[in-house]
Specification:
Helices cover 37% and strands 20% of the residues. Helix 1 crosses helix 8 (215-234) and helix 1 (18-28) crosses helix 9 (236-243). It has helices spanning 18-28, 46-52, 65-68, 116-125, 157-162, 175-178, 190-198, 215-234, 236-243, 252-262, 265-268, 271-287; strands spanning 8-14, 37-43, 60-64, 75-78, 83-85, 91-94, 107-110, 141-143, 148-151, 168-171, 185-189, 202-210, 299-300. The relative contact order is 0.21.
Amino acid sequence: MSDTASKILIQVGHSPDPDDAFMFHALANDKIVTGDYHFTHELVDIETLNRRAFSAELELTAVSLHGYAYLTDTYALCACGASMGDNYGPMVVAREPMSIDDLKGKTIAVPGTLTTAFLSLNLCLGGCPTGDTSPLSDARTGDCGTFNYVVHEFDQILNVVERGEADAGLIIHEGQLTYGDQGLHLIVDLGKWWMEKTGLPLPLGANAIRKDLGQPAMNEVTALLKESIQYGLDHRQEALDYALQYGRDLDNAKADEFVGMYVNDWTLDFGERGRTAVATLLNRGHEAGIIPNPVSLEFIG
């Protein structure tokens, strides 16, 4: 039996973007000792990971905080690995300048209904998916009352808006730095909007660990994830060189800027303020009728 075969398999899912690649560099490239655990990695867009988490096939997976609201029976949140928008976050862009109120009644291209971006957009516009278009639905189009949505792959939304196939687009990942290259205009930065409303950072993504691993393994795997994040921060250029292969249209400087936005002290630990931000976001989602049930949070580490 090989050494790998004798170890506990931890299947990891994360997004193919620079910040996730940066934080998982050490685990993906054998830069740290993983003891009793063998990690494999799948790179999949975040909305797909949100939906796959319902079948609990991955032991450790990136999730949107909105998606996690429906997964608390099977997953706990790792205290490390967060992507926090500290006065910045997902953005709504359009071909022409307009106000937030002008977005009402429009069709907005979104990267998925379980993303935190979609939840925060609804909170901003006073929307709530209706009928068979709840966030859990596979519907590609829907009515949120104050706006309509159409789901597209996150890396196609800028093109969709530029071509005029939607009135506006909700952008995540590196599109937040590149939308101007396509002549588009920022309508609202939802991270800034959230900070103005709550005084808190906007918690976007996290890593969730499957509860059936048991408490010791959950603690140990989370500690290895934190060690991987710390390795990236301590060996920044090395981890950035690895992450750059996932930085669609980003040069080294923009990739470094993007990683700095989402891999930082918040990523090492949510901290008390970060945990408050998560609870506040999900409570407001529930109060708005978007999230059907109150969410009980469990953090590991």
